[in-house]
UniProtKB/TrEMBL annotation:
Organism, as annotated: Gossypium raimondii (Peruvian cotton)
Coiled-coil features, chain-numbered ranges: none
Domain of life where this protein originates: Eukaryota
Compartment(s) of residence: Membrane
Signal peptide: 1-22
Membrane topology, as annotated: Single-pass membrane protein
InterPro entries: Leu-rich_rpt, LRR_dom_sf, Malectin-like_Carb-bd_dom
Pfam families found in the cross-reference section: LRR_8 (PF13855), Malectin_like (PF12819)
Protein name: Malectin-like domain-containing protein
Domain Malectin-like: start-end pairs: 31-364
Keywords: Membrane, Signal, Transmembrane, Transmembrane helix
GO cellular-component term (any): membrane
Length: 527
């Protein structure tokens, strides 16, 4: 009896030592958009936080377009009156590599209204919804693998004039630092956007979680392709364990490899075609494990892998390359595609039939450089101080995505510093009310400011004299008072200065007066 207890004690000790030396659980943040309370969802008791960190929008009851959508009852949608771009800005995200996933929804009772919009992560567009998305499991969410290094993440939804962006959930799931390493171009400046993730030989859609996969895998979604065409393949499955499956960096679930398809005599090639965006680079990951009882050793089944007709892997021998039967083999390759289709073909060389477990396809996206954080803060101060109406938006990054810059802010890319700067502010006649904040002078690269014809009151900040690149300053037709700051005399590049139509008083700085000789146009006091 004592020996028994001791043995158990040892087993217990060993178990606790090995579990404490295992890596900690990955960071996971899941937001249920529009929810007023934290929620747990079946079957795995997943925790969803109530809605927070959004810049606008309206909560509503949700209709989930697909049974793979998380079972959440609410969503948030962003009508155009809330601005053309709206964001979730989530702070305190540890530095790392993440899978960011967004599920889209349909507002209850408006399910025929399928909105089309764009999604960006950290200023880079990762997804444009295509019509018909709500009827396709693979398109009811967007997913991208990104490095988050500055402690926060901004996920923005951009209206394209075709319905209101409508979001059910946001997940930020940490993955391995080296997950999906595909070669030297991989890294911090690159985002992998999930195009397709297919599991072969099974009929049920699965998440890593359904496969009891490791959380470091990022709870991937696997779309089932039961067959590659009529009579061309046969499903295979096994209950046997699979070696080398759940390993760094990708932690694929072991159970993924327990099903596969094998080609048949009627058509020895296994071929799969999918639609892709043209002129992009794709990272393609192929999964194999020899689970067919008829293949007993290396050399018995050998095939080539072709992409759009070009050979990318020659003489793939799953048993030979993985080291054994019932052992996972993962191959990846990166290809540039010019057309709109991607065809993956497995062509048998020995053994007459090819075998395939799963396919993953990612679009390789070069991440946008962002706007200098100091300038973003200055614009935010301006937004607040001038009471910029909601319709302006001014959420997320001012300059990127390049397709959706903030209206009224002109951007310039500084190649040497790798950052965007603001070189112009054009907000004339916009009905703005408020005062000019000192922070406006933090926009060091401004060449032009036009705030003419608004209802701006208070004084002209003397700090404006430090924006030495300024060539045009038009503050005419507002309610500015006080005197013209002496510091404006230091703006040696200034060619046009319109301060007329205000309630300014006092004298004109002498340094300004002298420069009129150069053909500059300065207007001061008259209304
Ligand atoms: C949302 O659903 C709840 C009950 O599930 C209901 O009480 C509420 O009125 C609904 N809200 C709207 C805006 O339809
Ligand atoms: C993907 O392929 C590249 C190039 O063949 C290889 O260096 C890399 O290790 C592979 N990545 C993984 C995670 O297996
Ligand atoms: C694809 O990758 C190549 C090599 O890294 C690069 O030169 C090219 O610009 C990439 N193309 C696109 C569309 O990203
Ligand atoms: C400033 O904007 C107003 C209204 O848009 C325009 O009429 C005016 O010419 C602009 N000023 C300058 C100096 O370009
Ligand atoms: C400018 O106008 C504000 C009211 O808008 C007033 O409080 C302030 O005293 C005025 N300043 C000067 C210098 O006239």
């Amino acid at each position: 009896m004592l020996r028994f207890t001791l043995l158990w004690l040892l087993v217990f000790l060993f178990a606790s030592i090995s579990s404490s030396s295992a890596r900690p659980a990955p960071y996971a943040m899941r937001i249920s958009c529009g929810a007023r309370q934290n929620i747990r969802t079946p079957p795995t008791y997943t925790r969803w936080y109530k809605d927070f960190a959004y810049t606008g929008g309206i909560p509503a009851n949700a209709t989930a377009p697909s049974h793979i959508t998380p079972p959440l009852k609410t969503l948030r949608y962003f009508p155009l009156s809330e601005g053309p771009e709206n964001c979730y800005i989530i702070n305190r995200v540890p530095k790392g590599h993440y899978s960011v996933r967004i599920f889209f929804g349909l507002v209850e009772h408006e399910i025929d209204n399928e909105p089309l919009f764009e999604v960006s992560v950290e200023g880079t567009i990762i997804h444009s919804l295509k019509s018909g998305w709500s009827k396709n499991d693979e398109q009811v969410f967007a997913e991208a693998l990104v490095f988050l290094l500055d402690g926060s993440v901004s996920i923005c939804f951009h209206s394209t004039g075709r319905g209101d962006p409508t979001i059910i959930s946001i997940e930020i799931l940490q993955i391995d630092e080296k997950a999906y390493y595909f070669g030297p171009e991989w890294g911090r400046g690159v985002i992998l956007k999930t195009t397709s993730r297919l599991t072969c030989g099974t009929s049920k859609p699965k998440f890593d979680e359904d496969y009891s996969g490791d959380h470091w895998g990022g709870d991937r979604f696997w779309h089932p392709i039961r067959t590659f065409g009529k009579n061309v393949d046969a499903p295979r499955s096994t209950e046997s364990g699979i070696k080398k499956a759940s390993t760094v960096p990708n932690f694929y679930p072991e159970a993924l490899y327990q099903s596969a398809v094998v080609s048949t005599d009627s058509k020895p090639d296994l071929a799969y075609t999918m639609d892709v965006d043209p002129n992009k680079n794709y990272s393609i990951w192929l999964h194999f494990a020899e689970i067919d009882a008829t293949i007993t050793s290396a050399g018995k089944r050998v095939f080539d892998v072709l992409i759009n007709g070009g050979t990318v892997f020659e003489n793939v021998d799953v048993v030979g390359m993985s080291g054994d039967r019932y052992t996972a083999l993962v191959l990846n390759t990166t290809v540039a595609l010019s057309g709109r289709t991607l065809t993956i073909t497995l062509h048998p060389k020995k053994g007459n039939h090819a075998i395939l477990t799963a396919i993953e396809v990612f679009q390789v996206i070069v991440a946008e450089s962002k706007t200098s954080p100091e300038e973003v803060r200055a614009l935010q101060a301006l937004k607040k101080s001038l009471g910029l109406p909601n319709r302006f938006g001014w959420n997320g990054d001012p300059c990127v995505p390049k397709e959706h810059p903030w209206s009224g802010a002109d951007c310039h890319f500084d190649k040497s510093g790798g950052k965007w700067f603001i070189d112009g502010l054009g907000l004339g006649n916009q009905g703005l009310r408020g005062s000019l904040p000192n922070e406006i002078s933090k926009l060091h690269h401004l060449q032009s400011i036009n705030l003419s014809g608004n209802s701006i009151h208070g004084v002209i900040p003397s700090s404006l004299g430090t924006v030495t690149s300024l060539e045009t300053l038009d503050l005419s037709y507002n309610f500015l008072n006080g005197s013209i700051p002496e510091s404006l005399g230091k703006l040696t590049a200034l060619r046009r200065l319109n301060l007329n139509g205000n309630s300014l008083s006092g004298r004109v700085p002498s340094a300004l007066g002298g420069r009129l000789l150069n053909g500059a146009s300065f207007k001061y006091f008259y209304r």
